[in-house]
Amino acid sequence: MKSYEVNFDGLVGPTHNYGGLSYGNVASQSNSQQSSNPKEAALQGLAKMKALMEMGFQQGVLAPQERPDVAGLRSLGFSGTDAQVIEQAARQAMPLLVASCSASSMWVANAATVSPSADTADGRVHFTAANLNCKYHRSIEHPTTSRVLGAMFADQKHFAHHAALPAVAQFGDEGAANHTRFCREYGEAGVEFFVFGRSAFDTRYPAPQKYPARQTLEASQAVARLHGLSDDGVVYAQQNPSVIDQGVFHNDVIAVGNGEALFYHEDAFLDTEQMLAELSAKLAKRGGQFKAICVPRDQVSVEDAVRSYLFNSQLLSRADGSMLLIVPQECQNNPRVWQYLQELTSSGGLIREVKVFDLKQSMQNGGGPACLRLRVALNETELAAVNPGVIMTPPLYGTLTQWVDKHYRDRMTESDLADPQLLLECRTALDELTQILKLGAVYPFQIN
Fold this sequence. Notes:
By secondary structure, the protein is an alpha/beta fold. 35% of the residues lie in helices and 17% in strands. It has helices spanning 26-30, 38-54, 70-75, 82-92, 94-100, 136-139, 142-152, 217-226, 241-244, 272-284, 302-308, 329-333, 335-346, 360-363, 380-385, 394-407, 420-436, 444-447; strands at 3-10, 59-62, 112-115, 125-129, 159-162, 179-182, 191-196, 234-238, 255-258, 261-265, 291-295, 314-317, 323-328, 351-357, 373-379.
């Protein structure tokens, strides 16, 4: 039976703005308060989805969230009509309104952790929505994320869904941005790789000094237990605290894996040699041959990696056994990174080609190609059980671009977030989107 790694890309929401909400994310903070373009952002994301579909990769789409989060604002003491709630928040607590309008759900690498059926004890694909409790604007996502994923992967014979972990610091969970999987073939048992920034209970693990470590070891271990993963199919590794303090807030900013390969920066991890040896040994027991591609610090600094998002790329397997790297335009704009990539692809190694995409609207808020997609390995039977409305096709691409053109603004500033009309625009757009994607009622305004 054939198997695939399907990329489900996040559709950028109508309230896309540069709120500078993510402490530790250099791009997010440095572009704070600039004017954004939600329409351009959504179309840039759709263009990437279309391009991968046309290259022959399985591609899906994951819907954005309802914003502003009026229900969340009500729970914090604002009252009256929806318009009055927004007006009060804008007058009394503008930073809170900005957080309640964030379109950060576009980065669906943080939506959940996914384990394929070949790895799990019950033979189903398992999803655990990430609690994202390090940042308020992201901590409010998981209830809707769970409903959307449940509508996409509804067949309980093939799919199992878990609620987010407890929303406390000890179980900080950032989803697939700190998780990848190595395997010989997508449908075969693999080794799941969990990267954590700190331990909540074990003081032997060092912690960063400047920026927060968002993923805990304990959260990663809990997800592995929930998914029924065996000990010989899991490897835990600690992110280097010094790179977190340089703006590497998730592992997918400093490393990316696919198939049997890990593409990583020399300074990405602690105890790198031990980690590589464990990955190699465990993958070998599953018939795979682990391949490590290390980017030396003297060729690409951590600073260049963060500014270009070299590692926040998509590493994709092609039919001839080689790999394709999908990178943002910022890699081409960085002379040192671009020179490294030219040398890499001309060396005859595993990564043979680089394709560049303009994702400036996402990049300026701190998310590149890898942030925009959630990977789900599925066999043919499981793929057939996925809600067909969310699988990208040429007609769906056309429909979604028309939908964006109809509903999205081409300019968004902080003052625009206080406009009650924005909430109505968002709800109208999302109500139509759920019909396009055949999701049913997944948003609070549709349920309450």
